[in-house]
Specification:
The chain is built from five helices and ten strands. By secondary structure, it is α+β, with helices and mostly antiparallel strands.
Amino acid sequence: MASKNYKLIISYDGTRYFGWEHQPGRETVQGKLESVISRLAGEDIEVLGAGRTDAGVHALGMCAHFALDTELSPEEIRDYFNRYLPDDIAVLKLTEASPRFHSRYNATGKTYRYTIYNGKTKPVFDRKYVWTIEEELSLERMQTAAAFLQGKHDFAAFCKAAGKNKSTVRNVDRIDIRRKGEYLILTFHGDGFLRNMVRILTGTLVSVGKGEIEPEMVKHYLAEGDRKAVPATAPAQGLCLVEVDYD
């Protein structure tokens, strides 16, 4: 029997993981998935994801794929995953995909959400999923700066360790910032994001919201492309990959 290509949608709490990509001696989401499906297959199976979330970052809808020679139905494979995966990782959906489907190279866009708790009391039950900031943030200032960041730009100043031979141009077509009670919800959608990009954008917008820099400064950062000039990176726990787009 020839191997089939399978597409899966995964949800995970990234709190205790060193990111998506497997690393020697460290627990990662990819490593957990590969250990389960390799046990089912009786051989090493590689599970390739649509991206590489950082340590501590969460996902509602990470997409991945793998090849497997099996007579089991997609539902049976999904149930096997969920039977043996830890409680903080779940396979929400598993389907047979076309032989040429690749979760990373076929992706056309991604949606990320960053959550900030902007209040005076401790968010006890949300503490692992938000960035807590007591100082009041100006929603209007942040929205003004976000408008300058939307569109197709060179985001070299807003990424970590940009490769010399890799393009840092991305199209971010939506940055939506809304207040819901004591929470600020920042939603980013684009054709792709560089390493740490959403967290650096968020850190910059927070600096604008605090009044530490003016909204127009983000245009200067884009033009100069100097990462060292840009405010600090937002912590990982507030970030969540919501969805990956495919045509």
